[in-house]
Design goal:
Layout lengths: L7 E3 L20 H15 L2 E7 L8 E8 L6 H17 L13 H12 L36 H17 L5 E3 L6 E3 L6 E2 H6 L3 H8 L4 H8 L4 E4 L2 E4 L14 H9 L7 H5 L22
Antiparallel strand pairs: 1-3, 2-3, 4-5, 6-8, 7-8
Helix pairs in contact: 2-3
């Protein structure tokens, strides 16, 4: 309804109607096929030649619909807009007001049947012509959707939070000794303490918390994004000890092993730069670069 020149692509997934969960009306069809027919019906009511396609994606729900051309001239846009409004209202007010005929009917015949099923024409004040409000209270999404997973936060801000949280964990406990089962030697490396997300948040200033609360997931998402440094399990934050990480599988083909080696060490090791004891792994075993000379 945004414009006559509008085209659309839709990949139906969850079974929802205009005002809530989609209610099944055809027991002879699968739920998925019935919902696909409903989405097709919406396209026809809106005056589109609806084309169906099956995408090459690893999903059981891969049937898509494309609307590239209209079934009516631009001069009839106001009339079609009234029929669309009537269709939406009928879906809201009457649970059985739907048409489950097979795809292939023309738009005018379908709209005529729809009006008969809906019962009567909507009152004048319920109809909306082109260029007016689509539906009372309807708020479309912005053209550019804001990314709110902490990925768009300034790098300096993220680095500062990571450093503050790491120092908090490191200073919360005395150094712990790590026993290497294979080598049998004791190695003292400060693994820090584990604190709850609430305890960590209590040590951050209000401005930082306010900025994090505007992001989905907040502090927890930021820490999980920085998985090189932190491990978040059951609401507890730990400093990641790379000595305990499982080594990569040696069962990979030679070609894949060579390719992964060539793509190795594309980021600097945070522990080598910031941890008071340095990195717990030697340079040849660490997946991150111990200095810029190791970056590839």
């Amino acid at each position: 309804r945004s414009s006559y020149s509008c085209c659309y692509f839709v990949l139906p997934c969850c079974f929802f109607d205009f005002h809530g969960k989609y209610r099944r009306r055809q027991s002879k069809k699968t739920q998925y096929r019935e919902y696909l027919d409903f989405v097709t019906q919406v396209g026809f009511v809106c005056g589109f030649h609806v084309e169906e396609d099956c995408l090459r994606i690893p999903s059981t729900k891969r049937v898509s619909f494309i609307g590239k051309s209209r079934t009516y001239p631009a001069a009839e846009r106001a009339l079609i807009d009234k029929q669309i409004t009537h269709f939406i209202n009928s879906r809201r007010t009457c649970a059985v007001a739907t048409c489950d005929r097979r795809v292939g009917f023309n738009h005018k015949d379908h709209c005529g049947d729809l009006c008969k099923e809906a019962g009567s024409e909507p009152p004048e004040d319920e109809t909306e012509t082109a260029g007016t409000v689509w539906m009372p209270g309807f708020q479309p999404r912005e053209k550019v959707e804001q990314i709110r997973n902490c990925a768009s936060l300034p790098r300096d801000f993220v680095d500062e939070v990571v450093l503050n949280v790491a120092n908090l964990l490191l200073n919360a406990a005395p150094q712990k000794s790590y026993f290497d089962k294979q080598g049998g030697n004791m190695n003292t490396w400060n693994q820090g303490e584990s604190l709850s997300l609430r305890e960590v948040a209590e040590h951050l200033n209000k401005e930082t918390l306010k900025k994090l609360k505007s992001e989905y997931g907040g502090l927890q998402t930021l820490l999980k994004n920085n998985h090189q440094v932190f491990e978040v399990l059951n609401g507890k934050v730990h400093i990641r000890d790379w000595r305990k990480e499982k080594p990569p599988s040696k069962a990979k083909p030679e070609v894949k092993r060579r390719l992964s080696a060539e793509a190795f060490k594309t980021r600097l090791c945070w522990f080598f730069i910031h941890h008071p004891d340095g990195c717990s792994l030697p340079s040849e075993a660490c997946p991150y670069a111990h200095g810029t000379e190791e970056l590839r």
